[in-house]
Amino acid sequence: MSHGRHRPAGPLAYVGLVAASVFAVLPLLWALSTSFKSKGAVLSDSGWIPAAPTLENYTKVLFESQVPRYLLNSIVVAAGSVVLTIVLALLGAYATARFAFRGRDASLFLILMTSMIPGIAILVPLYFLAVRTGLYDTYAGMIIVYTAWQVPTVLWMLRGFLQSIPGSLEEAGRIDGAGDLRIMVQLVLPLAKPGIAAASVVAFVAVWNDFLIASTMVSSDEKRLVAVGLYNYLSQYGIEWGQLTAAVVVTVIPMILLFVLMEKRIVSGLSAGATKG
Amino acid sequence: MTMSLTTPPTTPPPADVEPARPPARSPRRRSLRSTRLPVALLAPAVVLVAIVSVFPILFALNLSVHETRYTEVEDFVGLQHYAQVLGTTEGWAMIGRSMVYVLGSLVLALPLAVGLAHLLDRPARFRRVFRVLILMPWVISQTVAALLWRWLLNPDYGPLGLGSLGGSRVDVLADPVLAMVALVLVNVWLSYPLATILTLAALQGVPAELHEAAEVDGASAFRRFRSVTLPMIMPTVFVVAIMLTLLYFNMVTLVLTFTGGGPFNATLLVSLEAYQQSFSFFNLGLGAAYSVILFVFNVVFGLAYIKMLRGDRDA
Asked: How far apart are the first and last CA of chain B?
């Protein structure tokens, strides 16, 4: 691996790392701090550590608002989209990485081109489409759109990953007489796990944080996602910073946890695909 | 489609583009009998993407050449909407602002990402902690980032607000130039993590022997990086650059929430205008025209990149 191949970081490097860390985390620390301030203290207390910390914002956000509902919606939609995306993308990635067939390159090119389409361009048509097919304001509608949005990226990621795995194992399986399905499930899938993990996190974060599709596809409060819910919170309460930051903390913590747990996997999952570059 | 940030939010273009080259390690060509399997495996993905992406863009193209009143599509007006964008100074001013935004962000984010990736690649105490902290903004949505930074920069209450400098009140968001600067900064804050993580992944693929060889030669650290490491990760840097460019050019949510296009249209970008025409003013036809212009730009730039990558590779 990479250990021991560089001289260990000198003091200057540490300065850089610390500076970058501060830059990265500053706004989040401030949000955390503000979330514990009462309404009046938000404006008057400009310290980083609240003089009179209070839990009233969290109480309001967790028990007297729609945020928990939004969280549930986001989890359902994001998880559903990621699962569907991985299934479709993995099949497609396997097909294009291991086989050569007519139309393969054209399909890959088509998929590449669709990632050039700006999101705003298709928002309005998607709205019409959703209304006409009755998928407007439903989990299914959002999951379908998010899946279609993520499949191109994830397919390419997984394809790159699969291409870096030698095909000898599958060849051996084929010689032994195993059918294609068995080969895929028993041989390829376990090897692809790191790539799948990395791609899943990337896709999950993208869906969780999206605003445009979520705001276009849903109008009722009970199906609203977190990203949109926060935005409405803003104008509804005329920027109540205490409650807003509490809501932000509550909705960001799951993402941070996910990230901390998967950080190592993400880098290793991405680097296997990246060496193909 | 290129959209939000985390996932880098937009859909980044693929890490390797070889539409015409078969994979190096694929088994020998299979007989026609087994063509059905791969096609069947790939079909669901292609069909879904076609329905949700291709069909709507055609729909948008259609919208862009018609007069529209709210949701009613009326007469065919040809390129009238496009003339409104490309034939007016205001239209080009908007494109100019988008360019400033994209280039400004790129110039900051890309070197930052490459530099940080290099730092994070070396063994260091607490490296894992640094990695998690430095990459943290990635999990934040554009909406949240915009709100947080708006608060931070608030002249009266924000800890980073410039308050009164030299006697006069300085409100970053009320000054046309400062607002753009702040917008670029927030954008960089949001986007450098993904660029960093991709570059870091590429760095980890660089063989150790190359580094050792250069070290033995006695070259300075910077020299080593420039002549040895950088060329090896160039393809990834290219990919990251194009990914960021597409992301920035099509970004809506951050701009919408942070400045709303103001003050006095100082941060009104093409992407934001496309959104506002469609969703605030209900000029669906005009909004669609803006969207198509964005699409064309994406494709042009994307193809230029592919060409550059091919040329770089063949060199």
From this structure: 31
Which chain B positions have a beta carbon within 8 Å of A1's beta carbon? 204
Q: Which residues pair with B76 in a beta bridge?
A: B66
Whether this prediction's pTM lies above 0.80 is answered by yes
Angstrom CA distances, A268 to A151, A189, A193, B129, stand at 21, 17, 11, 17
Asked if residue B286 belongs to a domain, the reply is yes
- Those of residues 95-134 in A touching chain B at CB distance below 8 A are 95-105, 107-126, 128-129
B206 assigned to some structural domain: yes
Q: For testing the chain B interface, which of A33, A34, A113, A120 should be mutated: the one with the most B CBs within 10 Å?
A: A120
Contact B259, B175 (CB under 8 A): no
Closest CA to B244 of B1, B8, B15: B8
Cross-chain Cβ contact A209/B1 below 8 Å: no
In terms of residue numbers, what domain contains B129? 92-314
CATH number corresponding to A56-274: 1.10.3720.10
B214-267 residue pLDDT tens: 666 666 667 767 777 788 788 788 888 888 998 999 999 999 999 988 888 899
Chain A, residues 51-70, CB within 8 A of chain B, namely: none
CB B294 within 8 A of CB B274: yes
The total of structural domains in chain B comes to: 1
Q: Return all residues near B142 (Cβ < 8 A) that are at least 6 apart.
A: A209, A211, B4, B5, B6, B9, B190, B251, B253, B254, B257
A147 — pLDDT class (breaks 50, 70, 90):
very high
Packed helices A241-274 and A226-236: angle between N→C axes, nearest 10 degrees: 150
The DSSP call for residue B14 is P
Q: Closest partner residue to A3 among B123, B132, B157, by Cβ? A: B123
- Among A212, A211, A117, A127, which residue's Cα sits nearest to residue B294? A117
d(CA A69, CA A250): 12
